């Protein structure tokens, strides 16, 4: 398909831009690939989050993930998930950078270690570490 998207960008309004930038760029470690300023103190930073996917889940799947990952505490309609090499370490680092830990890392039935956090810019995050060290899906051709 020649007109298929080539990039996914999640655009998030951050009331405290500096705090959000420090958290996502510096604490989480997302490299800044571009930044722009405009009139009236308009600012944007584009951070590289690696490969992007869009995960669609029906309500039953969302409830199941909330039960497994966060002890049943419901997540908002949109939750941002980041794969990390060390879920425990990243959870502690992000907590120290201002995130609130909702649920400590827990092993899931699909063999990942998942943690849930409330983070700057009013985002709910999942940090996940693949325990088998391999992808869980096969991309379509």
SSE blueprint and pairings:
Layout: H1 17-27, E1 32-38, E2 42-47, H2 59-70, E3 80-83, H3 87-96, E4 100-107, E5 112-119, E6 123-130
Parallel strand pairs: 3-6
Antiparallel strand pairs: 1-2, 4-5, 5-6
Characterize the structure shown:
Helices cover 23% and strands 29% of the residues. The protein has helices at 17-27, 59-70, 87-96, and strands at residues 32-38, 42-47, 80-83, 100-107, 112-119, 123-130. The strands form two sheets. The protein has a four-stranded mixed β-sheet.
Identify the notable features of this structure and list them briefly:
alpha+beta; 141 residues; four-stranded mixed beta sheet; 3 helices
Q: Secondary-structure element order, as H and E? A: HEEHEHEEE
Tell me, briefly, the overall form. Answer: globular
Radius of gyration: 16 Å
Q: Give the tally of β-strands.
A: 6
Classify the secondary structure makeup into a structural class: alpha+beta
Question: Helix count?
Answer: 3
The overall pLDDT average reads 93
The largest beta-sheet arranges its strands as 3-6-5-4
Major sheet: 4 strands, mixed
**Poorly predicted sequence stretches spanning 5 or more consecutive residues:** none
Alpha-carbon distance between the two ends: 10 Å
Percentage of β-strand residues: 25-35%
Give the proportion of residues in helices.
10-25%
